[in-house]
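Listing S7. Sequence submitted for prediction.
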Amino acid sequence: MAGPTLVRPPPVDPKKSVMENVLELRPLTDIGPVSKKPTTRAQRAANSIRELWHPPGARGVYGGAVIAQCLSAAQLTVPAPSPASDNAEYLIHSMHCYFVLAGDSAIPILYHVERVRDGKSFVTRTVQARQRGKCIFTTTLSFMREGRSGERTVDHGWDLPEGVSRGLEELLREEARKEDCDESTSSANGVETSGPFISKRLGIANGNTDFMKKTDESPNPHQRKPQAWMTCRGRISAAGGQSAHLSALAYMSDSWFIGTVSRVHGLVRLGHSMYNREFPARKAPSVRQAGGGESRNTYETPEGSQVGMMVSLDHTIYFHRPREVKADEWLCTEMETPWSGQGRGLVMQRIWNREGRLMATCVQEGLVRLKQDSPVAQAKL
């Protein structure tokens, strides 16, 4: 069956990874003012080739797919290495995104890229994802030319959490044992069995507690940190290059991200069968901080609460070491939520490679509304 594209999609390329096939775009003719000057702000458009995943219970397509395809579309417009730039590449170092409307998997997405600025060290692009003539997603991206930081730099980075490497080895041994015993692999042990990437969830770390101690009994939600390992299914092709690895990381960065808020509170999500199957309801310790004046935070969630609506509002990725990102190798992710309230929640994520080098940091804010005891008037998004 043909996908929701402007023209019939090409067959799946077996030489490319599943991720590359999912994110493939078809460049369209440049639009906007025609100019021979390099400073023109002419736009370039591309459209999605294949139908994007719509998670069960979600309002629209998986947000990570739109994030990644926006990055892919912008990368198509970045200047290629040339003698003028000492053959250096411009690689993404940050992108700031806003989810505007829910994406429909049944119709194509058009990506409009505006060349905002081409500088000697930085290149700036904005991308709008549109359906039916309306903007559903917008992002601003900044690319930095390699080799422009100088020989001496200020360096530091968050360390890989204790125990996560042993946790991955334990899960891989368990998976190998099940294969030897000819047992069917399920997601019960945190292993995703389908899709363009694989995720192995380790559980929730309690503050600075080693994952291997198997505890999440902190009374403070902001100290509970879900941890996991993820990697693309198959190998990213040489033809895809570093751009494909970076787009793949962008795709994976949105997996269960805003759901961190409900996970640390042990809440179920109404109508979201997939989430509730992966993360069953549990009674998480929760206390109200007493005394100390109005500056003290409240860590209490009403007993029996359920999440009635949870959607992403914005998403930011900082690519710290874009040249070193290998999305088809294991990447460790740790998420946390420093705050939630007033119907919103904030989540943060750190992503390391297996050697313990911090590859990226992500931040997202989302709408988090609990089911109310009695119907109340709520504004639409």
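Caption to Listing S7: primary sequence and predicted structure tokens for the chain studied. Confidence is low (pLDDT under 50) at residues 34-39, 184-191, 208-212, 287-295. The CA atoms of residues 173 and 179 lie 10 Å apart.
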